[in-house]
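Customer escalation, tier 2.

The customer says the design service returned an amino acid string that "doesn't look like it belongs to this structure." They asked us to rerun it and document both sides in this ticket. The original structure tokens are below, unchanged.
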């Protein structure tokens, strides 16, 4: 009996094998296996079965099938970014198509040759094959309604780092009229444009493109596409430090992915059930056709099949259980991730509150220091003008130096606070970089001469004359770096270099290098010198002075402008600071504005009447004395309410308005005065703080701003401007 069962099993196996063999050696069979492995991202297996299909076509002289399968192999290599192997197969496919009637696949092969060359940066060769593909498309009188060819071309340009041309091609697609076939391509094009804009740091337009991609994805009802777009939006918000929205979109992405996974599992179960039903149907047919002699054998075979089916169901049950447990674990991980994200958000909020408190404290301290410092500087100036004795002159000069040092120190603290609290905005105006560098060199020649340094400036002539950027912040960066180089170098060389690093049609990248032969910086201090109040060592601070804030401001400003500063240094040999900045190019000629420094004369100020609104008694005394020294009549009011009432009945040539007053403040008083007096010049006097700026004060109707502590020449010059 055992031998009979063995013979029956061998017979059935040989029967099933002979049935399968009829279908295994064919193009469709290998193609099906290759596609199945591609779906599972098993590229090596897909390549193997595609090559088997190619061998079959060669053996059986199936030229058109051979061309199609060779193209398919090239496409697999292309998707793996194995461009050399891809090109080899695409060219071979085109040569095979030359022997048969041209088809759509030949168009795709030509187009993919163009795309592969484009991805490798060979744009001219790529364009040649794009034109060949378009020509064949017209010859076959076909229309690419879905714009697949242009989308593939744009994607290849993006891979080849030609972002402007890639964006232009994607925009061409989204401008096409809507039709059912182009909806998916438009969604993908908006998605790709969003990625490009994010790379170029054009955040607003990136978000607009992502939103459009979502809209078109909804029309197409493509869950895979929607999941991909939502993940990109989450990464966009994470990059822009909006963690709440980033987490919200990431959570939605995971929900869609879980839903897709459930759909796949349901489809898998259904397919297995269909196979099982088909097997049962075959068995029933065999039972009906068999005679009574083999009924027992058929029964045993059916029993064997049932056992196999039970085993298969058991395996599927175990697989389902594993998937269920995996889903539970994933949900637990998601919950853990949410908790961690909440903790990160709380920590971020705490850090932001602490940073804000620090900034407000430093701002308040620096603001409050300006009022007594104004008294120190003002009294020093008045004493120096009052013909002091020779033995007093030395002390007064030292007092003046100390006051100026403290003013610089407070200004630098306020500058760092503004940068940290994002109060600083980047300007985009036209300027001439070469002229700016020459002006900086001229302003620092005296310091270079004092330390007996050779100060050289090298500017690349290829740098465009008319750039668009923020010249004020660039000047601040370069002035600080050159100032440091000249201060820490004696009897040496300081070299400033500006070179054109890269240029495109609408932008240019400039490389800056500041080299000195000074005292240098120890290797263990190369990072800490960029920290606040750090100068490398106590000895350096004692010998050369300074606040230790200059390099901190430089680093923060360069990062604000989109660059990164690098430092190389060796003790006793000098230091080299380098950074690169990107500027837009203005193709219109830069207007030449001749700025001439306008000096004031004492006659402009004589016999003028000025109303001073100031509540601090010391500042009242100092400002009155400075004005009376120029033969100016000064009347003092210590609050805003009385000043408004006085100006309704009296006329003055000018009003000096302190911003911070008891009762109504200076800005409110100015708004009230402007309701009945539009002409009298009003100049703000302020120890400017983190929340104040010149434009804000001018918006209330003030004509100009004088910052405390006063610099006498600037104080008189500002007043004289309004007495022409």
């Amino acid at each position: 009996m055992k031998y009979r069962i063995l013979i029956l099993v061998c017979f059935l196996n040989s029967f099933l094998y002979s049935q399968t063999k009829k279908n295994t050696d064919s193009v469709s069979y290998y193609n099906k296996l290759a596609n199945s492995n591609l779906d599972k991202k098993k590229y090596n297996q897909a390549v193997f079965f595609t090559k088997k299909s190619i061998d079959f076509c060669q053996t059986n002289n199936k030229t058109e099938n051979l061309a199609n399968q060779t193209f398919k192999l090239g496409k697999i290599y292309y998707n793996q970014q194995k461009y050399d192997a891809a090109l080899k197969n695409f060219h071979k496919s085109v040569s095979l198509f030359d022997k048969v009637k041209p088809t759509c696949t030949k168009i795709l092969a030509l187009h993919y040759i163009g795309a592969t060359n484009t991805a490798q940066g060979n744009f001219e060769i790529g364009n040649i094959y794009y034109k060949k593909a378009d020509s064949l498309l017209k010859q076959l009188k076909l229309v690419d309604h879905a714009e697949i060819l242009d989308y593939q071309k744009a994607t290849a340009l993006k891979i080849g780092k030609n972002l402007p041309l890639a964006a232009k091609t994607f925009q061409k697609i989204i401008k096409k009229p809507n039709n059912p076939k182009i909806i998916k391509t438009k969604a993908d094009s908006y998605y790709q444009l969003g990625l490009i804009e994010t790379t170029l740091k054009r955040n607003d337009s990136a978000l607009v493109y992502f939103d459009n991609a979502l809209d078109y994805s909804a029309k197409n009802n493509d869950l895979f596409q929607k999941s991909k777009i939502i993940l990109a939006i989450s990464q966009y918000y994470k990059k822009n430090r909006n963690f709440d929205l980033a987490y919200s979109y990431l959570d939605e992405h995971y929900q869609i992915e879980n839903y897709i996974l459930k759909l796949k599992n349901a489809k898998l179960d259904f397919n297995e059930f269909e196979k099982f039903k088909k097997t049962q149907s075959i068995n029933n047919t065999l039972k009906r056709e068999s005679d009574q002699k083999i009924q027992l054998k058929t029964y045993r075979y059916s029993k064997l099949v049932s056992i196999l089916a039970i085993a298969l169901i058991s395996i599927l049950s175990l697989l389902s259980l594993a998937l269920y447990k995996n889903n539970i674990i994933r949900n637990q991980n998601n919950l853990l991730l949410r908790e961690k994200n909440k903790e990160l958000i709380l920590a971020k909020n705490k850090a932001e509150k602490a940073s804000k408190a620090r900034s407000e404290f430093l701002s308040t301290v620096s603001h409050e220091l300006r009022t007594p410092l104004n008294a120190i500087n003002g009294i020093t100036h008045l004493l120096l003008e009052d013909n002091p004795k020779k033995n007093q002159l030395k002390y007064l000069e030292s007092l003046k130096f100390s006051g100026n040092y403290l003013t610089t120190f407070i200004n630098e603290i306020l500058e760092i606070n503004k940068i940290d609290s994002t109060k600083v905005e980047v300007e985009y105006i036209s300027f001439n970089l070469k002229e700016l560098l020459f002006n900086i060199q001229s302003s620092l020649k005296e310091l270079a001469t004092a330390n007996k340094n050779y100060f050289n400036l090298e500017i690349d002539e290829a740098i465009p004359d008319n750039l668009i950027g923020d010249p004020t912040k660039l000047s601040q960066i370069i002035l600080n770096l050159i100032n440091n180089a000249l201060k820490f170098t004696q009897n040496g060389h300081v070299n400033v270099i500006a070179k054109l690093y890269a240029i495109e049609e609408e932008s240019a990248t400039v490389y800056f290098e500041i080299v000195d032969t000074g005292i240098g910086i120890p290797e263990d201090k190369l990072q800490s010198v960029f920290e606040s109040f750090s100068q490398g060592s106590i000895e350096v601070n004692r010998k050369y002075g300074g606040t230790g804030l200059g390099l901190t401001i430089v680093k923060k400003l360069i990062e604000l402008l989109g660059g990164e500063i690098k430092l190389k240094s060796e003790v006793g040999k000098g230091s080299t600071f380098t950074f690169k900045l990107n500027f837009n190019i203005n193709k219109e000629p830069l207007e030449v504005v001749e700025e001439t420094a306008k000096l004031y004369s004492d006659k402009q100020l004589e016999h003028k009447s000025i109303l001073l609104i100031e509540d601090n008694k010391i500042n009242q005394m100092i400002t009155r004395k400075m004005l009376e020294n120029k033969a100016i009549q000064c009347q003092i009011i210590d609050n805003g309410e009385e000043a408004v009432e006085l100006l309704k009945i009296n006329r003055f040539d000018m009003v000096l308005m302190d911003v911070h007053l008891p009762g109504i403040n200076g800005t409110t008083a100015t708004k009230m005065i402007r309701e009945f007096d539009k002409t009298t010049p009003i100049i703000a006097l302020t120890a400017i703080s983190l929340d104040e700026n010149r434009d804000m004060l001018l918006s209330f109707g003030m004509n100009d701003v004088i910052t405390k502590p006063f610099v006498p020449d600037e104080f008189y010059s500002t007043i004289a401007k309004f007495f022409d």
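Tier 2 assessment: The sequence is consistent with the input. The mean pLDDT is 79. The CA atoms of residues 289 and 295 lie 10 Å apart. Sent an explanation to the customer and offered a walkthrough call.
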